[in-house]
Design a protein that fits this description.
alpha/beta; Alpha-Beta Plaits; binds adenosine-5'-diphosphate
């Protein structure tokens, strides 16, 4: 579903978030007080505006309160980061994501109502370590503390068997939500008759313990 986002602070983090959201088909209003940062993104987003986002009037004039998600990517200026997160929540933006510099900063953001707090470098580090620790895990999205969506290369023991025969839910407590056959072909919600083939990528939902029990 197409959503409307505002991204405030277009450093490395904010600008990659803004560009990716556009590629995914969403509407993105991008804001930075720095002219160069705005210029750099002008052709890549729905609207790029140069403004100091601490000014509440500016945010109101841009209609920020009617947008679905606010992302605060300001890094070094803690005061601006906290103030803007607070203003977005007070204006009624339903979902506000804020970038934190430290655990303490994250706690403050949580107290003032941020819906999601990201620690880009730590998050990336954890992601990378998880990816590297199992050679057949290609990517994952954390759903909760325990559950994630993983993309794994089909274990050799699974090859040429149907999902019905493998019975992964009962045996490993793993749900297969899609099978990627190649770059263009993906079977969504595969049924019991779907056959796992060599080099397939299985998109599974399970907890981390279940993942570690899967054969390589
Ligand atoms: P990163 O580490 O992701 O590159 P930075 O902290 O370097 O993040 O980038 C933050 C961006 O936020 C900068 O482009 C800066 O101009 C912008 N910024 C900082 N304060 C404000 C503000 N009050 N209003 C709008 N943009 C801001």
């Amino acid at each position: 579903m197409r959503k409307q986002f505002v991204v405030i602070g277009l450093g490395r983090f904010g600008s990659s978030v803004a560009r990716t959201l556009m590629k995914l088909g969403h509407e993105v209003l991008a804001l930075d007080k720095n002219e160069q940062a705005v210029q750099g993104l002008m052709h890549d987003v729905t609207q790029a505006v140069q403004a100091d986002a601490r000014e509440e009037e500016t945010l109101r004039a841009l209609g920020v309160r009617n947008l679905d998600v606010g992302i605060v990517g300001i890094g070094d200026d803690l005061e601006a980061n906290i103030l803007i997160t607070l203003m977005l929540k007070e204006m009624g933006v339903p979902y506000v994501v804020a970038k934190a510099q430290s655990i303490q900063h994250g706690k403050v953001l949580e107290k003032i109502g941020a819906d999601k707090i990201v620690y880009p470098e730590q998050d990336m580090g954890i992601r990378l370590a998880n990816n590297l620790s199992r050679t057949n895990v290609m990517d994952f999205i954390e759903l909760s503390l325990d559950y994630s969506i993983f993309e794994i290369i089909a274990p050799s023991q699974f090859v040429n068997k149907t999902l019905g025969k493998l019975n992964l839910r009962a045996v490993y407590n793993v749900n297969v939500v899609a099978i990627k056959k190649n770059a263009d072909q993906i079977v969504i919600a595969p049924g019991a008759n779907s056959v796992v083939e060599e080099k397939d990528i299985l998109v599974i939902v399970c907890n981390k313990k279940a993942l570690s029990r899967l054969p390589d």
